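Blackboard transcription, Thursday session:
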Amino acid sequence: MTKKASGLVAVARLAGVSTATVSNVLNRPELVAPATRERVVAALDELDYVRSGAAVALRTGTSRLVGLVVPDITNPFYAAIAEGVTAAADDAGYSVALCVNHDDPARERRQFELLAQQRAAGALVVPLSAGSSRLSTLRRVGTHLVLVDRIAERDEGCSVAIDDVLGGRLAVRHLLALRGPRIALVNGPRTIEQCANRRAGARKELRRSGVDPDTMTELTVEEMTIDAGRRAGNALAAAGGVDGVFCTNDQLATGVIRGLADAGVRVPDDAAVVGYGDLALATDGPLPLTTVSQPKLLMGRTAVETLVREIGDQVDGGREHQHSATLFQPSLVVRDSAPAT
Amino acid sequence: MTKKASGLVAVARLAGVSTATVSNVLNRPELVAPATRERVVAALDELDYVRSGAAVALRTGTSRLVGLVVPDITNPFYAAIAEGVTAAADDAGYSVALCVNHDDPARERRQFELLAQQRAAGALVVPLSAGSSRLSTLRRVGTHLVLVDRIAERDEGCSVAIDDVLGGRLAVRHLLALRGPRIALVNGPRTIEQCANRRAGARKELRRSGVDPDTMTELTVEEMTIDAGRRAGNALAAAGGVDGVFCTNDQLATGVIRGLADAGVRVPDDAAVVGYGDLALATDGPLPLTTVSQPKLLMGRTAVETLVREIGDQVDGGREHQHSATLFQPSLVVRDSAPAT
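(Written on the board underneath:)
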């Protein structure tokens, strides 16, 4: 504030007017005589007074602000995406408005209205359960949207995601090569796109290896937690006869190992376990996890670059923008829970 | 953009002018005849066209944007603070610009310049190694600052922090009551204020209990990781004769338990271990940790409220602002690694 006041004072002095007049020129120029207005505008220019994103935003219609919409910033997967997003935004000269919605559409709508008021240039949206209708509601607010960790449907916009079908294939291929064809899948609800895709990859790989995918034991949990994994591990041990367990996140894998151990089934000697995610949990536990690693930082970075390109296409005055869908490949990180063959 | 274009078109139609004229009224009103300008302004108002934070920012000097400056958003402690900050900002009608600096002053300065250009109303700064000089550099950029997880020095500004001396006392009090006076401290570098304060609390509590604080075994690690904790646990087991180990974060506690187990020292039967932080790691491991819990969400929330109050004091035209230092108490969460006495 001190800064602004002294700036106004300097401008007023240079233009030979009162600070109230400078303020009027900035806010209600119609009240100021043209000759006076010109003097003040010249002084403003000379002193580079309004080095203000707000002025730029009024002129261009957008500011150097992009929204990042995530369900939960305490989830390390979304935090890793945010890390990549903020790094790329720094490089591109954008600020990142962090919007945490906890999958609450009302909260998300309020955040988007605020972003629109601030003339945000666009937003990166990591949807938990976004249907297309919800996204198009957000789009009506007027910003460019890039979907992250979700493949956009045709004409829906740009997207940056990870090939979860391939991830499922990598996990099951490793388990099949390591021990044998009796594979179990511990998975979250199939209504979550990522869960459905990881399962599809697992089944695909079994089929390619000549194993009937319907022979795969499938356990579905509501919440993909360590506790749910432990119960699944208990159940698998009771059923007996499993060579490898593919868990669709690292929490489930951690729990499954513990649940198998409860019943005396040792990992990896008696059964191998592969997780998904490669977050801190994968290496924090006593038995480091073999897991599918997603390029989270790269995904965040690319999402920003995709958005900046889309904004640029628009600023260049109608150069036709072609939506893009970028799909990154995951990789398998081999550790102790399912060692190298 | 479509939205903006159609908005301009609608305004132009209502005012009976071209869209170029509407654009001139918005950007270079001095070019437009007063009567025309009045018609356009009336149309803008009628259509609620510029419901724009940018316009508000130009008028008031600030926008409804606050910065959140953290060293690393993938660190779950900072992510938890961000969670509290975004929730409170939502309630107060502010957006949060997430600035991740990885303790790089140059990167931080660029972020602050961008925040200043965007007329951010202020910023919440969670410093890793901030000296006062660095903070005053940031303050010169012109935004209000609130320090988070660090007690501000006199006249430095508002701050919201957690009483780490009390945290150290709670941990050692529990260990003393549980088993005996032979306490070990596994700590990070004392140049980190939090580490120094937690140690000071540990020593204070020993003194209060009639134990000479210099009899406490102290192991200092460079990086406060699980691996470093494990090596510390190995060293403690080799030295022998410890009743309780106070680790100044949960990573160290997890490692110490593992390092003690390597040498056949069982936790909690042979020695009790208390961590600090109560992040996911505290409950993710096979042995749930007794740990000092910090009100991270509340700290984030209060930081926003403190900043909003400071901004309000300024907006109310010079009502004198009194800096405040809020210190929250941590609490001990008792789990298996150091059970109830």
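Lecturer's comment: Chain B has three domains: 2-51, 65-162+297-329, 164-294.
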